[in-house]
Structures are given as C-alpha cells and as structure tokens.
Structure prediction request, 346 residues.
Amino acid sequence: MNTVTEHAAIAAADAQQASTYNASDVTLRARLIEAGILIDTGEDGLYGRSQVFEDVIDRLNHAITLLGADQEAEVLRFPPAMRRHDFEDSEYLKSFPDLAGTIHSFQGNDRGHHRLLEALEKTVSVGEEERTDEWMDQQKPTRLVLTPAACYPIYPTIAKRGALAEDGATVDVFAYCFRHEPSIDPGRMQMFRMREYVRLGSPQQVMDFRQKWIERGSLLVNLLGLPFEIDLANDPFFGRGGKIVADSQRAQQLKFELLIPVATPDRPTACLSFNYHMEHFGEIWKIAQANGELAHTACVGFGMERTTLALFRHHGLDVKAWPAEVRDFLWGDTQSSISAGLEALS
Ligand code: AMP
Ligand code: ZN
Prediction:
C-alpha cells in the first residue's frame, strides 16, 4: 500500500470508528426517564420498568426462545439468589469480589432489635448527607447471595444428577442478576436480566455450540435492525493479578461479545456474550462427560435490558414508530422471520 492510500485507509477506518462511537447517545438515560420508560429510584443502576419496556423484553425473550427451539434445551428457572455455599465454591470472589452481592438479615434477639431501632432512629432523623449504616451492625450474613450470572445455579444442579448423557446437556435459564457496579450509564445496571443457553459436554460440543450462537446472536440483532460488531473480549477481573487472567482469557479466545452502540460516549456496549469456560465449572462441581472425563461448558448470555435499551436508542422512544420490519419481527410473525433466518444460516 502506498502512503497516500494508506492514509486514506486509516482515515476511512477512523471515520468508521467515529461513526460507531457517535452512534452512542449519552442522553438516553435522561430521555428514557423523562418518557417514563425507565423509572428513576434515586440509585444509579436500579430502575423501575414501565409496561412498554417490559413488553419489549417479553417479545425479545420470546424471539430468543424461538431461536433456540431446535436445541430442546431443558428449561430451568431459579430465583435471583443462590446458595452461598455454591457461590463460595464457584471462585467468583477470586475474580470479581467488587461485584458480588451478599444477603444479610437480622438474626438477633430483643436486645439486638432495640439496638437496631436506636441506630435506625439516629439515621432517619439526620439529613441526607449524615445518614450512616450503623443499624446494619445488627445484620448477619444469610445462607444466600444474589446471583451474579444466570448460569451459576445450573452447574451444581446438573452435577448432582451424575455423568452427562452422550450428547451432553443444554439448559435454558433466565434470571435477574446482581452486580455492584453503580453507574449513570443506563446499560450498566445493578440488577438486570440475563437469558442464557448453557451447554455442557465435550470440548467439541461446547465449541460448536458457541460458534452456532455467535451466528444466531448476530441473526437476532440483524432482525432487530441494530448495528453491531462481534469482538474478542475479557471479563473485568479484579486487582493486579486480574490483568494477567484477562490477558490469558483473550489469548485463549474464551470470550466474545456482540457490541451495539447504546449510551456510553466512547465505545459500544456488550449486549450479548459468548463464553467458553473450558473445564472450570466441570472441575469445581465434578461434572463428568459420559466417558468419565471432565465436562467442558459454554454459555451464551443475552443482556435483556441492554438489548432493549439498544432498540430504544436506535429506533426511538415511541415503539409504534419503530421501523416496520422491526415491528413485524417483534409484534408480528416472529416465528417466520426466525425460520427464514435460520434457514439462511444453515
Ligand atoms: P457477562 O457475564 O459479563 O458476559 O454478562 C452477560 C450479559 O449480561 C452481557 O452480555 C450483558 O449484555 C449483560 N450485562 C452484564 N453486566 C450488565 C450490567 N451491569 N447491566 C446490564 N446488563 C449487563
Ligand atoms: Zn453464563
């Protein structure tokens, strides 16, 4: 490439990047709250959802069900909490201590109750600024923690059943998840829903599954009329050692994300993720393949709120004014669009 064309190519790449980044909209949160689509609770990352928001979530969820119907996945639903015991085993705290949410409760006697009320009285009687959390001294950990990712309760559950069948297992999960990452980015919530398909089996089975879902996830987002890119990614591992783990995760290509410009000023948002855990969960919970070897696992996670926010960002706040193809897909014959899309993929 000569220097002139090289410069032109760099300029074109810059322009393309700039147009992707400009496609994010930092006013989105304020506009959604103003329109009553998200309800401000006063805490960053904790929102109420309106009927219109939930309607989009439901339709998106239905589309994901149709997209994965041929897998005949086992549907399992858990509440947004899991056993602390399983959470401790999961090694989540090794990687993300800053994101975890534990559940505490009052477990004292009358004297403790008295102290709690005294501390609470002090707290509520002072100004907003001086409020303290002294009353929480009376709270003790329960045996539950908040679920950090929808697939976490699956592994110990499947492990208890004994070795997997020859063709492994595929599970369909959906749950509210908690991550302590307060932010004014509406795409970074503290409580949000994750729909997932989880595959357990041989390395080949789970890698095939992940590849299939990178294609199907892209199909879905195309049908939603949204711009996107797929990129290699890493999880936000905590601390100094975290950088090494993140680099190794990238080097082994364990995580890909489907990114859509939503509301962050300088980068698109990960709305879907495609994760290969190798034998990490298989080893922790002793999940065996039919041949006795440790099971490998992978999951595809659909960020329900993030994808819904992307729809509002790109198609506008009035769902009735969304492009006809997108309306037809979500509120019309979703099944036919998906069948045609899957046919084209195969
Ligand atoms: P991860 O386990 O981090 O790959 O998350 C799975 C999916 O959940 C991501 O692709 C996002 O779409 C979604 N997600 C992760 N963190 C958040 C968050 N703080 N707020 C909303 N959605 C999130
Ligand atoms: Zn998962």
